[in-house]
Write the structure tokens for this entry.
Amino acid sequence: MTRNPVGWFEIYVQDMDRAKAFYENVLSRTLEALAPPGADGSDMEMWAFPMQPEAGGAAGALVHMPGAPSGNGGTLIYFSCEDCAVEAGRAVAQGGTVVRDKMPIGPYGFIALITDPDENLIGLHSMR
């Protein structure tokens, strides 16, 4: 099966409870606990976004790991949405900020840019 170029993503956070609540409420999805990699994994906490291993697209997780910084570090992940303006509005209610309101990107639909409470910049994409 041909896969999309991005196979996995990790969003590093400092406060897992806050980050988990933010993403679950903004995206209306429930995250699932992941066993961290490595022998004991005691220094990492991971929560995965809902995924289907055989589906196209990227899967990923929120990660809390001592020494791993969060914030605007140059990686931008776009989450698919029905209407990105709706999710952008939810972000503000959950402690995030809207960096760029919903805007058209020609035949490719619409995007909005938001930050989460850890100051990670994320994108929202919809076709309407």
Helices lie at 16-27, 84-93. The beta strands are 8-12, 32-34, 45-48, 59-64, 78-80, 97-104, 110-115, 121-126. The chain has two helices and eight strands. The two ends are 28 Å apart (CA to CA).
